[in-house]
Amino acid sequence: MTHPGATAAEAISVLELTSAAKDILEGSIPKLWIRGEVSGFKSYPSGHWYFTIKDADAAVSAVVWKGATFKIPAKPKDGDQVTAFGQLTVYPQRGNMQFAVTQLAADGEGLWQRQFDETKKKLEAEGLLDPARKRALPRMPRTVAVITSSEGAALRDIQSVIKRRHAGVHVLLIPALVQGEGSPESICAALERLARLIDAGAAVDGIPLPEVLIIGRGGGSREDLWAFNHESVARAIAACPIPTISAVGHETDVTIADLVADLRAATPSVAAEHAVPLLDELRDLVQKLSGIMADGLQDRIEVGRRDLQRRADGLSQRAQLVSERRRARTERIAQRLAQAAPRLVERRRARVAALAAGLEARSPLQVFQRGFSVARDAEGRTLTTLAAFVPGAQFELLVKDGRVQATTDAVHADAPHLRTDA
Amino acid sequence: MSGMTFEQSLARLEQIAGALDRDDLPLEEALKLFEEGITRLREASAALADAEGKVRTLLEQADGVFGTKA
């Protein structure tokens, strides 16, 4: 029977040998769990981890390839008691046997808890978990940003809840890998994109800038949620320019992202409920405000009206007082007038009588009564001077009881009847 | 519209409602506030009557320009 390498002439390459060993090992020993203590741990720049798993009696080289490290929350430390799941194999290029680890769990508090605690402690020390940092959510965002997988159930849940509560709210998805290798980087990139969008300050395609962010994913294994425990993700959430709601997995899952976010929601659906208020509730609120405002004005007007009424009352009282005083005065004057009138009439009548008497006294007829006479010529002209009498001419003499036909005999200039000194 | 968000309109409305509740506010001022309140109410109501919201995915081009796809 002959086989490769049976003779010197048929010598095989080293690689052929180590590759054959690899195939045999992998073919005969299935993937399995081993238990032991970590020692000589080293993380290489290539991203692979190398260490030894040993117990009291033996040791085996172990490797975690870069692609598998993302499933392991924290690097193990020397001395850790671990259980490791993997494949015993040979690295053909070096010819050494190694246990290729794909899952690693530490006994005791465990690697997950250790990673969680360490990150939390670090962020806490920086004040990123301070409750005072928590921002209030907007009461009515016009747009809700969502960072999650475009394929996942989380997005569908969020969409349907928002549509049910307020169909007018826009949803802007910023897709990210939420599990597996590269997911922390992908989530951070999505958060940075959101920050740039907010910073640009302009609506996109008629969608207003998001006012609140929901970041998360639906339920999954602890490994699936691992990205949300990543320190870089926590920092990016803390730096988000708009309020954040975290929604990672189920009720019982608490991640570092939950601690940093402004609000932690148990599930994506609950997050959507927090982000978007019920339209009806908002309508009620606006209605209520409208009522309060109208009532306020009504009351204010009522106060003004009463004030005005009070002043008006005061004014009319004063006016009444004034008019009463005036009426009294008028009455007094009228009374005085009424009293004075008869006396005035009397006085006037007396004066009229006196005047009448005077007039009578001056009447020409009175002159005749007193014995005087008046001479008139033929034309009726009163002859009052010496010159008016022409000797030989006739004239008429009016006396108390008739007329006398007379003729001027002579005129004499001397007039003893006019002398007052005689 | 004054460009106020629903949020701002609502906050201003609450402010106005509070101010109108004070009796010492001059009547003229009260009327002015009420008038503004009516404007804000209209805005807020209009925001609530908004059309169907869109669901879009954010895209960012290499030059940093944003767009969306359905």
CATH superfamily of the largest domain in chain A: Succinyl-CoA synthetase domains
| Termini gap of chain A | 218 Å
Secondary-structure-derived class of chain B: alpha+beta
Round the mean pLDDT of chain B to the nearest integer and report it.
80
**What is the radius of gyration of chain B?**
19 Å
Characterize the biggest β-sheet of chain A. 5 strands, mixed, barrel
Strand content of chain B: 5-15%
What is the chains' assembly state? heterodimer
In the CATH hierarchy, what is the class of the largest domain in chain A?
Answer: Alpha Beta
How many distinct helices of chain A?
Answer: 10
Q: Which shape of chain B, going by the Cα principal axes?
A: elongated
Helix fraction of chain B, binned, reads 40-55%
Characteristics:
heterodimer, A: 422 residues, alpha/beta, OB fold (Dihydrolipoamide Acetyltransferase, E2P), Rossmann fold, 4 domains, 5-stranded mixed β-barrel, 5-stranded parallel beta sheet, rod-shaped, B: 70 residues, alpha+beta, two-stranded antiparallel sheet, 2 strands, elongated
